[in-house]
Amino acid sequence: xxxxxxxTVRLVGAGLRALLVLTVVCGVLYPLAVTxxxxxxxxxxxxxxxxxxxxxxxxxxxxxxxxYDLPLKKGEETPAPDLKWFQPRPANGLGTNTVNTxxxxxxxxxxxxxxxxxxxxxxxxxxxxxxxxDNSTADHKVQPSDVPADAVTSSGSGLDPxxxxxxxxxxxxxxxxxxxLPVDQVENLVDAHTDGRIxxxxxxxxxxxxKLNIALKELIEKD
Length: 223
Known about the structure:
By secondary structure, this protein is mainly α. Helix content is about 45%, strand content about 5%. It has seven helices and five strands.
């Protein structure tokens, strides 16, 4: 065997050994270590911040917004909102999966339209009219000036799980009427699920819609 062949064999052998070692370290030991640390120190976040109902059933993630709609009727392109529940921000980021229709694809992104874009202006005007119409009850009329910005615009990701306390309170009379609950009881529910600014100064007060609706469901079942 010539020196060049021996060198080639030696290099190939060294490369295979390095590949094996790196595969074990980076592909097995490191992922196991990271997973173990994550599960040991913060299992909730490591498992996707799952949110459970009062029966212990996982119903979503507190980090991802979800819609509360009625079943799609024949001839409808988009389902109507189920007005017995608190509604989230408009979810322009939600789309359909045209590749595998067994699942719904979640698309995250902003519209990237400017404030004077005609289509965006139409969207906002239509959304405001719908908010006024849907949340007005026989004894409580919502005025267009009462509608906060987050009720008619999506977030940058389109998947924001929170709404402002103002938007949550705007929905109180409608939710109370639809579920035959006292208004003050639903107001107390919103207050109890309003989170303040992080560390007292970062961000804005917010309400997690999923957690609020879980509490609302429990209240309905107790009533």
